[in-house]
C-alpha cells in the first residue's frame, strides 16, 4: 500500500474521514480516483472489506492498483 503525498509540499497525507490532511503544510485535500485508461472518474465499490472501482465509461472493473489517484486542495 503506497502512501499519499501532498501535491504542494510532498509531505505525507493522513487519511481522515473523507478528506486527507497534510500535517506539514496544514492543508486539507480531497482524493479523486480516475480510470487509468480513459481518465474518467470511477465509481468506488465496497464489498466485504475489499475495494474495487468501476469505470462507467470503459464499462470495466478496476483493481486499486490500476486506478490513478490525485489530491486536490479543498477550498475553505
Ligand atoms: Zn503539504
Ligand atoms: Zn475508463
TrEMBL record:
Pfam families per UniProt: Zn_ribbon_6 (PF07191)
Name under which the protein is recorded: Zinc ribbon domain-containing protein
Taxonomic placement: Bacteria, Pseudomonadati, Pseudomonadota, Gammaproteobacteria, Alteromonadales
SUPFAM superfamilies named among the record's database cross-references: YfgJ-like
Organism whose genome encodes this protein: Corallincola platygyrae
